[in-house]
Write a structure and sequence with these properties.
By secondary structure, the protein is mainly α. Among the domains are: 32-112, Winged helix-like DNA-binding domain superfamily/Winged helix DNA-binding domain (Arc Repressor Mutant, subunit A, Orthogonal Bundle); 160-210 and 217-229, no CATH class; 250-279, no CATH class. It has eleven helices and four strands. Strands 1-2 form a two-stranded antiparallel ribbon. The chain has a two-stranded antiparallel sheet with strand order 3-4. Strand 3 (248-250) and strand 4 form a beta hairpin. The longest helix has 16 residues, at 180-195. The protein is rod-shaped, with a radius of gyration of 41 Å. The chain starts with 7 loop residues before the first helix and ends with a helix. Residues 4-15 and 119-130 have low confidence and may be disordered.
Length: 280
């Protein structure tokens, strides 16, 4: 009798492949979140956006999920996180609404949806005998209009020397790249350094020296601290030179030396000359 060998060849005949992902599923009793495949397998969202949506969905209500708070947790920078949040808003998984508190402060309220807002659940089946009708999707209610945010007056144009110092910092260290808004905010502090007699090149070397190898998370805040903490003292006021005495002159009458700005008579000879002139 021929021996039967149940090996990989038998599995191959069933149409199963040795390639692709395998799953080892274990039951979770605590600390887990349920995420739909419509999100996990979304073909138009980036992996950063999908991972960010899963993380936000796992958080408790009231947890801060602003761009800076998320950038402090993960290696992705603020630019990538902001882009991922916009993706989730576009596809209906996230809404960010500005609200005004009773104190007048403007805050942003973030709402996370476990199903996109454009998703409409099917209606329950009709009783037997009633003709089926195709469910008509109900459009989601429009989000409330954002509260008016007061606009700040435009900042004045920074002086050219201070602007050049800040703009040129990235030539010393590419990590010190500043935005236009950062330059406008930091320019007055740089102008103070220049007014105290520090050369522009010396300002740049002082600000760009000794940066940690791992860099800085917020270059503008790092430079603002250094501009304040390392501000040099103003130069001492220049003292005026004491007046120089008049040069020595020889009297035209008695040939004695006396001090006067121009040649002539000494005081005694001038008095005698005036007396003789008055008596004549």
């Amino acid at each position: 009798m021929t021996d039967q060998h149940f090996s990989a060849h038998a599995r191959a005949r069933t149409g199963r492949s040795h390639q692709g992902v395998g799953h080892v599923d274990e039951h979770h009793d605590e600390r887990f979140s349920v995420v739909g495949n419509h999100l996990a397998q979304h073909s138009e969202l980036s992996l950063t956006a999908i991972g960010l949506a899963v993380h936000i969905h796992s958080l408790r209500s009231g947890t801060l999920v602003g761009i800076k708070a998320l950038a402090a947790k993960f290696p992705e920078g603020e630019t990538r996180i902001a882009s991922a949040l916009r993706e989730l808003e576009t596809h209906g998984y996230l809404a960010r609404i500005k609200e005004r508190l009773p104190s007048g402060r403007i805050v942003t309220r973030t709402i996370s949806y476990n199903k996109p807002r454009t998703h409409t659940a099917p209606r329950p089946p009709k009783p037997h005998g009633e003709p089926k009708r195709t469910p008509t999707p109900t459009p989601p209610p429009p989000p409330p209009p954002p509260a008016a945010v007061p606009t700040s007056p435009p900042q004045p144009e920074p002086p050219a020397p201070a602007r050049d110092v800040l703009a040129g910092l990235r030539t010393h260290d590419p990590r010190l790249h500043l935005s236009e808004q950062d330059v406008r905010r930091l320019a007055p502090a740089v102008a103070t350094w220049l007014e105290r007699g520090v050369a522009p090149d010396d300002v740049q070397r002082t600000l760009a020296s000794g940066i940690p190898k791992e860099g800085v998370r917020h270059p503008a805040g790092f430079l603002a601290h250094r501009l304040t903490a390392l501000l040099p003292l103003p130069l001492p006021a220049a003292h005026p030179e004491p007046p120089r005495p008049a040069p020595l002159q020889n009297c035209d009458d008695c040939d004695r030396a006396f001090r006067a700005p121009t040649p002539g008579r000494c005081r005694g000879c001038s008095t005698s000359h005036e007396a003789r002139a008055a008596a004549a």
